[in-house]
């Protein structure tokens, strides 16, 4: 019954949902029984499915125009990946500078001291 209700809430027709459950392995008797129970608890089962129209099809979430920018870095995968690359590049440059400095210092140790 819950699966049929869920399918109807997503906009599927009752017949299509029934066929889907039968093809998934449920017996026709089980599906018909669930349909009868669903009709008894919800009198509007056979009504047209609800359709939600989005006034802005390019942005599926109108309350948040750019969802990746408003998330904190710990929850935003793109920003997290960018920060990770930035950290690796910065750390690599620092390590190279230290190694070059150590090599120069080692070569001129006797002349310095």
Compile the SSE list and pairings.
Elements: H1 2-9, H2 14-23, H3 28-41, H4 67-70, H5 77-107, H6 109-112
Helix pairs in contact: 1-2, 2-3
Percent helix among the residues?
A: 55-70%
Global shape: rod-shaped
Q: How many domains, in number, for the residues? A: 2
Radius of gyration: 31 Å
Biggest sheet layout: none
Give the ordered list of helices and strands: HHHHHH
* SSE class: mainly alpha
Average pLDDT metric = 77
Number of strands: 0
Strand content: under 5%
Runs in which pLDDT lies below 50 for 5 or more consecutive residues are none
| Euclidean distance between termini CA atoms | 86 Å
Count of helices? 6
Structure in a nutshell:
By secondary structure, this protein is an all-alpha fold.
Question: What features would you describe in this structure?
Answer:
The chain has 113 residues and is mainly alpha-helical. The protein folds into two domains: 2-41; 71-112. The chain is 63% helix and 0% strand. The chain is built from six helices and no strands. Helix 1 packs across helix 2 and helix 2 packs antiparallel against helix 3. The protein is rod-shaped and about 95 Å long. The protein starts with a helix and ends with a helix. The model has no long low-confidence stretch (mean pLDDT 77).
